[in-house]
Amino acid sequence: MNIDFGKTALSVIPNFKGGEKEMSSRMYSDGMNKIMKNTLAPGASIGMHTHEDSSEIIFITSGRGSVICDGVKEPVYAGLCHYCPKGHTHSLINDSDEDLEFLAVVPVQ
C-alpha cells in the first residue's frame, strides 16, 4: 500500500502538545497506526509529553533540530531516526533557521 501525503488534508496545529508556534501535518490512520508527515518551522516545537499507551518513531527527512527524551537533549538531523518507547517522555524542537520535516509513526491502542 502506498500513502500519498499530497492527497491528504493539511492540518495546522497550534501549540501541539503545549509546544511553541505551530506544526503542519498530513496524516493517515487505519485504526492501527497513525502515520504523519509533519513540518516544524524555525522556533516551533512539540511540547513535552509521555507516551503512556504506545511508542513513537520519528524519522527526520529534512532540516535539523533537537529532541529531549527522558531529560536528555540530543541533536536530530536529516536521516536520523528518534524512537520514544512506551512509557517515556519526549519533545521535538526546531532550534534551527530552516524547516524541520519528519515522518512520525504512532501505534493506536
TrEMBL record:
Keywords: Metal-binding. Residues 39-106 form the Cupin type-2 domain. It comes from the Bacteria. The keyword Transport does not apply. Pfam families: Cupin_2. One of its GO terms (molecular function) is metal ion binding. PANTHER family: CUPIN TYPE-2 DOMAIN-CONTAINING PROTEIN, OXALATE-BINDING PROTEIN. This is Cupin domain-containing protein. It comes from Candidatus Cryptobacteroides excrementipullorum.
